[in-house]
Amino acid sequence: MSDITKQIDLVTGNRRMRRYRGSEWMRSMVQETHLSAADLIWPIFVIEGENKTENIEAMPGVERMSVDRAVEAAKHARDLGIPAIATFPNIDYAKRDKTGSEILNPDNLINQTTRAIKAAVPEIGIITDVALDPFTSDGHDGIFEDGEIVNDKTVEVLAKAAILQAQAGSDIIAPSEMMDGRIGIIRQALDDAGYQSVAIMSYAAKFVSGFYGPYREAIGTSNFLKGDKNSYFLNPANPNEAIRDAALDVQEGADMMMVKPGLPYLDMCLRVKEEFGLPTFAYQVSGEYAMIKAAAQNGWLDEERAMMESLMAFKRAGCDGILTYFAPRAAELMKVK
Ligand code: PBG
After folding, report:
1. Is residue 31 part of a domain?
2. Active-site residue 206, yes or no?
3. pTM (2 decimals)?
4. CA of 189 to the centre of ligand 1 (A)
5. Ligand 1 pocket residue status of 326, Cβ below 6 Å
6. Would you say the CB of residue 131 lies under 6 angstroms from ligand 1?
7. Is the pLDDT of residue 112 over 60?
8. Contact in structure between 132 and 105 (CB atoms under 8 Å)
9. Domain count for the chain
10. Is 8 part of a structural domain of the chain?
């Protein structure tokens, strides 16, 4: 025995961690965390028109698509074993106004999309966002009046919008604007309208973030968003406030939780999962996608490896699933194996 060997044995009592790593079969046998297509939720961007797609500059490989194309995407997702799609609209500028009134049009782009997908691919889950930002002329998630985002008035509109989304066939309502009291009021509104079986996925811990930039290009708000969202999203420095806010969502009846952005907030994923034990999801947001894409396009990192490693990180941190623009790519990759 060499000196170094003796020393290791003395300290560790013959424990050699590398026994777990010596062969592919052993690594597979002791693997603690698993990722599958069932863990993925695919966010898509929808535009008006027919048989139309548009590139999003800051999100290479992601397209805005017309409703008929969204239906095709939903079929593709189903075939890959992706359980659900989350839809985000980019509506005509002419339809955006101060109060986001288009969100209350029963036949708006988002509800049209839900109806079309539900008719063609009933076996896939539809998650719809309720927030005003795709509908307001200032790009804010709530109603902006006299220099502030008005909470209760906004929530009233969101509750009505949630009913219309449920009516169109949405399975999960996902409030993403961080207004106070929204989960309880939306739950009540859904129940009163007979939609007890429609679930609520709360964007429970949503932080102010620089990583949302490409999304704002995707839904067309980056040009006119005034100011910041600091008065309603969480301060990235405040994990305890995030938990207190999330706790209210649980009390108010959230069925599942989301942490957003994803990778920079893995600590919050773990804490939200441990604290509440609800199904917990992370949103790997547009900027996170763009970072990996941009580096890969420069040949600076291996896109597939970085993608899969980042998705596995969410599972390791306790998430039950991930909203990710990589969903079809990752599912495709896992199918091959
Ligand atoms: C706001 C909303 C945001 C995203 C989805 N809905 C954040 C924002 O624009 O402030 C971001 C999604 C992403 O970056 O991928 N309701």
Report:
1. no
2. yes
3. 0.95
4. 24
5. no
6. yes
7. yes
8. no
9. 1
10. no
